[in-house]
Write a structure and sequence with these properties.
The protein has 131 residues and is mainly beta. The protein has one domain: Cathepsin D, subunit A, domain 1. 6% of the residues lie in helices and 47% in strands. The two termini are 18 Å apart.
């Protein structure tokens, strides 16, 4: 699922793919997708960016991963051509991990919508209007 991610305090944004993860408490932007977030002049989000807060989590095989935490707005395109915006606090990976993993759309955002998944059709719909 794709979303436009805006970090208002930092004045940066980028379009990234998010893996829907009902097992993740929070929405997480991993290193590969962090490189897609840029300033209005096209500059990358600096590797030494100071985020509002920091946190640690267990990664793959129990490895510790450090994240910065920042207020964000996620914009999702609808089938009708409009956008739904969801304010959320995202965790952003601070350094490249030994194993690349996709960014995650966690329950902090998923709880704002009804989710319908049709596995045979490989179709996932988030219905924001009924949440």
């Amino acid at each position: 699922m794709n979303a436009e991610v805006v970090l208002p305090r930092l004045g940066v944004w980028g379009r990234i793919a998010l893996l829907v993860d009902t097992g993740s408490d929070s929405t997480i932007i991993h290193w590969r997708d962090r490189l897609r977030i840029r300033t209005p002049k096209g500059q990358l989000l600096a590797s030494d960016t100071v985020f509002q807060d920091g946190t640690e989590a267990s990664g793959i095989a129990g490895s510790r991963v450090e994240y910065g935490s920042e207020n964000a707005v996620l914009y999702f395109d609808t089938e009708e051509g409009s956008q739904v915006l969801v304010p959320v606090r995202v965790d952003i990976e601070l350094a490249p991990a030994t194993q690349e993993v996709p960014s995650l759309l966690g329950r902090d955002v998923l709880s704002e919508a009804r989710m319908d998944f049709n596995m045979p059709a490989d179709d996932l719909v988030l219905d924001w209007a009924v949440a």
